[in-house]
Write a structure and sequence with these properties.
The structure is a homodimer of 418-residue chains. Chain A is 18% helix and 30% strand. With 418 residues, chain A is of the alpha/beta class. In chain A, strands 7-4-6-5-9-8 form a six-stranded mixed β-sheet, with no helix packed on it. In chain A, strands 16-13-17-21-20-18 form a six-stranded mixed β-sheet, sandwiched between helices. In chain A, strands 22-25-24-26-28 form a five-stranded mixed barrel. The model of chain A has no long low-confidence stretch (mean pLDDT 93). The interface between A and B is large, with 114 and 115 residues.
Chain lengths: 418, 418
């Protein structure tokens, strides 16, 4: 299968991963559905509300009895009772009558509107004076006005948010079918890598950075994930471990190999991948900086990402390619539709090379006037501190030669908070 | 304690909650730190890297031996060996010599730079021709160049991201001190509320919406949370349950009471809160729409939010006041610094009332040219479907009279995805 070095453009990578199908589905409890993707359209099993409900504190009335009422010419109505919350009212509103009601109360028979408390003056215990009129169904939600029984409330592929959980609760929907999240396995490779828990590290060795950082990110995003530790550059052992990670119980859907980014190491990773069952090297290199030496392959229906060994490159590839890929496996479509960014002004020129997409690490600052500006983080590209000091990334597209000083750019911020 | 109806402006609420101190601290494993806030500054215990490391594949050389080399006038060097990954090189680079090295390898003694492979041509097994010169320390990270031993790498109050976990792993930092997350209790109140699992609901009753939606949101954000079910409008029982939620083992830091939004109900909630030990009603009403009937009180060091019973109001108050408050308790500062929004054009006028902050539910659409525009979701304010159909909110500030058609507004999107 060994193929020639196939470098593809970033935009092409996004197209390739968009072709993948979601994994299987599972039924989950509604209350744990935030952030999950529906695998079926949901139709409303009921009308919401299922009875006419007041949306205000005030008096249930017949709207026609209020016509003509004004500040200057108030009308009088007889108060015949009060609606208790949670129970149907036994009395009916007859012409010239009103019944006190609070927000959420069930409209009594005969009434077709609620007049707000602030337009009513209690003259005595049984009489109110109203200073404005109401139209039919004013301050009332009629049965099915919020949601009609049988209507589609959420399409297949919908990302569930907490308000959606609320609507499902209102309708008594207790469990839902969603796409399952991919199971992920991580293996760090390299003769020079020692576990990050190593206190005193031998000369020439370095602690595993990619294993912990990728793990912490994916765990915080709720993925089921298993770590397979560190393997030295030993073809047989790496191949065995890849097979174990992908096929042993529980099998993984996606294998992330964090390997060396040197040319020899890449060949080695490609060789191991080529020996996996039904393997296909999809691409071998992305036209980006940093992050070029990235490998993507499949083994049957499973996916393998060979991430650059360089921590900075590996982090950026995770954010911009691996995570969108995981989202596609869990059923999310069009995730780029409304990407949240922060607009900031560039204070320097950002030159780039045509034919390569550049990720520029930037810090955000506020100027005296409260405007935001983005400043590139200086330092050698291999320094992890350039990532930790940055607030986000500016992307220079593949077919751009960069941005000029003064341009307003979109910054993709690192922090996950809403 | 019963105080007069105290309505405060939204901006004032944000100032009030910003005055709260973070809760205690706890030590956690680094790999679970994404999204947590550091309670102590972290200093680097080591130099990173701790040996001179190559950042490229190529040859370790003495930079002075390369001066003058060019395409037209290449220089020759003797290759005396190869650096193995993960072990120190035993040979030294002497004048006129070069040693093969891969990315991440330890620079051999005598060398002070690495010349990239692409500028080297192998003439025979022991000789290379180089076509450019390198400056001292080119393509090398010197010890401590990424991070110096003893330097501050993260300040107190820093929100940990996955790259920060990576840097800590590189430095062998295995556990860190963070602010603990507030423990939250939820109680739904109301005679009309039945559990959302109720199949057939009696006339006049409605299923609990706020309990499940708030729970699902806070669980997805990783808060430890306990549900105390539904209490009818019974002062004694509600007071008992509030005390249990706040003080019994494990005690909660924050109590969320989702109550009725009717005037009577608010009085009832205020009365119960006033009977809690060391209680203080901080405000009673926020000048916002929707969400006005919101109560905030303290009981000693604990906080109580009385959320509006209206699901839409309750959701908005959660997003804009309760969650920022929780973030402050867990040590996050300046969360508004770089709020991520989506810019969109308004296609209609959005009038508002001076003196009140308005949250407008909007849907985002793309026009033919790819531009984004925001369209208000129409429908009565009490309809939950206005929230589920919206993509986000546009905020009209307290002292604004609205936005005109054509204005570019910031939309705060609901989805949490990065």
């Amino acid at each position: 299968m060994m193929e020639f070095f196939k470098v593809v453009e970033a935009e092409k990578v996004l197209k390739i991963i968009a072709e993948f199908d979601p994994l299987g589905t599972e039924e989950i409890c509604r209350d744990f559905a935030c952030g999950r993707i529906l695998s079926c359209q949901i139709n409303s099993p009921e009308n919401l509300p299922h009875f006419p409900r007041s949306t205000m504190d005030g008096y249930a009335v017949r709207s026609q009895d209020t016509y003509g009422a004004s500040e200057g010419l108030p009308l009088m109505l007889n108060v015949t009772g009060r609606v208790s919350m949670g129970t149907p009212c036994t009395i009916e509103v007859k012409p010239g009558e009103a019944i006190a009601i609070t927000t959420g109360g069930m409209l009594p028979k005969g009434a077709d509107a609620v007049i707000m408390e602030e337009y009513c003056h209690l003259l005595d215990e049984e009489t109110i004076e109203i200073t404005r009129s109401v139209t039919p169904w004013e301050n009332v939600l009629r049965p099915g006005e919020d949601v009609k029984k049988g209507c589609a409330i959420f399409p297949r592929g919908h990302l569930v948010r907490f308000q959606d959980v609320g609507l499902m609760a209102a309708l008594g929907i207790e469990s839902i079918e969603v796409f399952r999240k991919p199971r992920i396995a991580i293996i760090s490779t390299g003769d020079e890598i020692v576990p990050s828990g190593t206190r005193k590290i031998p000369q020439g060795k370095v602690r595993d950075v990619n294993g912990p950082s990728i793990y912490s990110r994916l765990i915080s995003l709720g993925y089921p994930i298993e770590r397979f530790g560190i393997v030295p550059d030993d073809e047989r052992r790496l191949l065995e471990l890849c097979k174990e990670a992908l096929f042993k119980d529980p099998p993984s859907d996606v294998l992330l190999l964090s390997g060396g980014s040197s040319i020899g190491m890449r060949d080695f990773t490609v060789k191991v991948i080529s020996k996996l069952p039904d393997s296909n090297l999809v691409f071998h290199g992305i036209a980006i900086k940093p992050g070029k030496p990235t490998i993507f392959a499949t083994s049957g229906k499973k996916a393998i990402w060979g991430l650059p060994g360089h921590p900075v490159s590996s982090m950026i590839v995770m954010l911009f390619f691996v995570e969108p890929f995981l989202h596609i496996l869990e059923g999310l479509k069009q995730e780029e539709k409304f990407r949240r960014t922060i607009r900031a002004e560039l204070r320097v020129n950002l030159p780039s090379v045509h034919g390569r997409l550049d990720f520029i690490r930037v810090k955000l600052h506020r100027d005296e006037k409260g405007g935001l500006f983005a400043e590139p983080v200086y330092g050698k590209s291999a320094m992890i501190s350039t990532m930790t000091e940055a607030d986000g990334l500016v992307i220079i597209p593949t077919h751009s030669e960069g941005f000029e000083q003064g341009t307003e750019v979109d910054v993709l911020p690192f922090h996950l908070n809403p």
